[in-house]
Fold:
Amino acid sequence: MKNVFSLLMITMLFAACSSDDDNGNGNVALEGTWKMTAFKSQNAYDINGNGII
Structure:
């Protein structure tokens, strides 16, 4: 029984290991039209020029 359990565990170990290499390029271009909705800064800016910061 111990040999069967050991064989089962070794089989599970090799079955669980897989090669998930992503051969694609890691740099993905983000295309499209983007609208900035917010940003954080330690400096105050008047973005639309209305005098309110």
Q: What stands out?
A: The CA atoms of residues 36 and 47 lie 12 Å apart. The helical segments are 2-16. Residues 2-16 form the longest helix (15 residues).
